[in-house]
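Journal club side-thread
Mid-discussion, someone asked how the predicted structure for our own chain would compare to the paper's figures. Pasting it here so we can look after the session.
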Amino acid sequence: MTSKQIAHLKSLAMNIKVVLQVGKLGIHDNVITDIENYLDAHELMKISLLKNSDIDELEFKTLLISKGITVVTKIGRTMVLYRYSKKLKEHIEF
């Protein structure tokens, strides 16, 4: 992904709210399924890792990448995720 594409996704993410909060239960199959389903429907999402979660962020990022999900940016404990969706008729244009 080019720097222009990342900048465009960051600008789009400014206008969306956090859709998913990951807490003390951490990352489990349901969380990953929710992320994948949301990205299939919208292509871009913002998630928040709560302070009480004991998530290894590097491990989480590796898991996301293995699912074909791009971590566009991470600011504090908020991450913006992107994955191209074959199901959508209108895609994010770069």
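Post-session note: The longest strand covers residues 44-49.
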